[in-house]
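Below is how a single chain appears once it has passed through the pipeline. First comes the sequence as given, then the structure the pipeline wrote out for it. We keep one example in the README because the format questions we get most often are answered faster by looking than by reading.
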Amino acid sequence: MTVRCEGWSFLPFISPDAKKLYYLVRSGGLRNWIAGALWVADLESGQRQRLLPDFLMQGYSISRDGRRVVFSAVDETGHTPVWLASLDGRTTPRRLTNMDGGRPFFGAPGEVVFDSEEKDVFIYRIKEDGSGLQKLLPTPMLIAFGVSPDGQWIPAQTPNQFGDSTVYRAGSTSPIRICGDCSQPQGTEYITPPLSWTPDGKFIYLNFAGTTYAIPLKPGQMLPPIPASGFPSKEAVAALPGARLVSDQTVYLGPNPSIYAFTKVTTQRNIYRVPVP
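Resulting structure:
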């Protein structure tokens, strides 16, 4: 299904039941370039509506049960505190922390993970009631792309190894290398995560140089077998037991390998004539 909108749409997310598509829409005049209004489209009827109209978001994530959203909101001073809200509007949005957050994620049940800057950028976790704030990883300057369903694994990039895909275990300083020079560096625009999980934890998605594979996981398993130096090629990923090609273009994965979203940009321009005195 095609969802059209006016403005710059980015960061699409397919709901866990595959019935809705969430996305941000950026328009002119924003204080923060990577920020937008949260919209949702019904994939059956095509109807669209804006959610949480009092907020502009720098990043957001939908819970694995599809009922809540955690987001970093851009306020009038340019700060980006982390908030938690229900998607049905039945409860008032709740601010979890005053710290400036990047894109937050749902971690282990009852926890939220986000990156924030003190003297350096660190990745934190906090309980959904706003208590228990602590560093999740001791390594600074990491860019997180998500969290495993058990809250223990964080795909991340480090500025001195842009292009490498790595995953960190909570509390560890030693990452596991997924592959080298195989991931698009994170810039001013969000990129698709190099590693992510389906909400039920049955599949892990691995993006190797723009080609995405779905790899089945055994119960309780969060990572597939990974060579000591990482995967050397797409063929090595494709050779994993049960691995299947999802797409050879940049896509945003859904709750199972059969559904995904992607963005297509079109531009409408006008030509004007201005009299010169």
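The first strand starts at residue 8 and ends at 14.

See the next section for the split statistics.
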